[in-house]
Amino acid sequence: MELTSVYKVKEWMIQQIKAGILQHGEPLPSNLAIARTLNFKTDDVYDAVDELITEQVLSNNLEEGASVKSLHPFYYPLGEVVSISKMIEDQGYKAGTEYISFDEKPATSLDAMRLNIADKAYVTIIERVRTADNNPVVYCLDKLPTESLTCAEYQNSDESLLDAIEAYTNKKVAFADTEMEAISYEPHISNVLGASPHEGLMLLKLVHYDKDNQPVLYSFNYFKSSLVKFKTVKNRL
């Protein structure tokens, strides 16, 4: 079967990206310039660009036109319980934490259901930002029963939250039930992360359980979608 002109244009652009001639995050040459370089019709170039945008090789900004999609520096494996610190440090960055607030409040009915505690039982609430080389990457809102870990105990632990929970409760997280949701814009969180109104966020809602299937931690993790890519393996049943 003969290769179409659109295929040839697509493959030319892919090879230009692989060779580093077209750089990630940089705009493409004009469709007319590409058409003249390859001696193809501009319609073929338009179609090739549209297909590569659909395939997320290219991205499109309505004001600036098409560009080579920027690379994500971080990968988060959805099929594993992996700390955000490890995600950051695996890519050679220094992981850090900026704390926003600590509080202990009565549980809402939703908190009580998620954590399997009595209504209005107190929960410890920790608001923080995880950073890579001091740059914000993930906004975290964590809730857990105050009887398991108080704000003061966590602040004195000098450990990760999961390690602090294990140290004070002797409960180790075995797995996490995870929901994933795309968020277009959230004023407070986007501002904390330094994300523009045009930059999307990915929200992971996680309920962490111990080996006895008892919930120990309820978390909201907002990731800057421009920085983090999510990976998982799906098996056919």
TrEMBL record:
Which residue ranges traverse the bilayer?
A: none
> What Pfam families does UniProt report for this protein, alphabetically?
UTRA
SUPFAM superfamilies membership = Chorismate lyase-like (SSF64288), Winged helix' DNA-binding domain (SSF46785)
Where is the UbiC transcription regulator-associated domain positioned along the sequence?
90-229
The record, for SMART domains, names: UTRA
Q: Which InterPro entries match?
A: Bact_HTH_transcr_reg, Chorismate_lyase_/UTRA_dom_sf, UTRA, WH_DNA-bd_sf
Question: Superkingdom of the source?
Answer: Bacteria
Q: What is this protein called?
A: Transcriptional regulator
Q: Which organism is it from?
A: Staphylococcus caeli
